[in-house]
Amino acid sequence: xxxxxxxxxxxxxxxxxxxxxxxxxxxxxxxxxxxxxxxxxxxxxxxxxxxxxxxxxxxxxxxxxxxxxxxxxxxxxxxxxxxxxxxxxxxxxxxxxxxxxxxxxxxxxxxxxxxxxxxxxxxxxxxxxxxxxxxxxxxxxxxxxxxxxxxxxxxxxxxxxxxxxxxxxxxxxxxxxxxxxxxxxxxxxxxxxxxxxxxxxxxxxxxxxxxxxxxxxxxxxxxxxxxxxxxxxxxxxxxxxxxxxxxxxxxxxxxx
Length: 256
Prior knowledge:
Elements: E1 3-8, E2 11-17, E3 23-29, E4 38-43, H1 53-64, E5 68-72, H2 89-103, E6 109-115, H3 118-125, E7 130-136, H4 142-146, E8 154-157, E9 160-164, E10 168-171, H5 173-181, H6 185-195, E11 199-204, E12 225-229, H7 241-254
Parallel strand pairs: 4-5, 4-6, 6-7, 7-11, 11-12
Antiparallel strand pairs: 1-2, 2-3, 3-5, 8-9, 9-10
Helix pairs in contact: 2-3
C-alpha cells in the first residue's frame, strides 16, 4: 500500500511499504509543466538523509536540466520507518530496489547518484535498469575503512557501538560486522564488474578516499571514469565545489 500527498508545485512527498513491512519515505521533484522521460535517483550516505544540502541542491539542479529527481530516506523518525541501528547494506539495497520498482517504472532512462555509503548501497542493489551511475566520494573496501585500530570515532559501551561524528550515532552490530568482514576491494570490484554499467566516481580531494588508487570505476564497463574535485571535503560543503560536482554528474548522464 502506498501513500501520496502533495506539498508544492514541484515536489510530491510519498511513502511506500517494504516487503518486510517497513515504510520508506521520499519525494519526487519535477519542473512545473514538464514531463521528462528520465530521472535521477539520489541515495544518501551513512547517517545522512535525503534533505542534506548536496541532495536538495542536486534536485534543483537536475530538474532545471530536464530530469525528474527521486530522493528518499533509508531510515528516519517517521512512523513505521527503519532505524539506522537496524540497518545493513543489505536492507539499504533492498529498500533502494523497492523504490526503483515502485517510483521509477514510468521513466525511459534512469540514472543514480550515490554519496558515500550510498555508493555500495547502489552496487549491492545491482540496478540493471540504470543507464549510468555517478558515485560521490563513495565508500570502497569497507574492511580497510572500518578496521584500523586508530579509529577513535568508533566506540563500544555495554555492547552498543557508537559513531562519534560530532554526535553519538548508534550503529547496529550487523552493520558493523558486515563492514568489517565483507565488501573488501576484491568483492567491491566484483560487484562493479557484474553490474557492468558506466560508473563515474567523483572523488573529493580532501575526502576519505583521495589517496585510494582503486574504486568502483576500476572494473566493469569500459567507459568508467574518475573525476577529482579539488578543494572538496567528503560532503562537498566547502567553497563552491558542489557546482563542479553537479556539472560533472550532468555531463556524465547526458552522454547516456
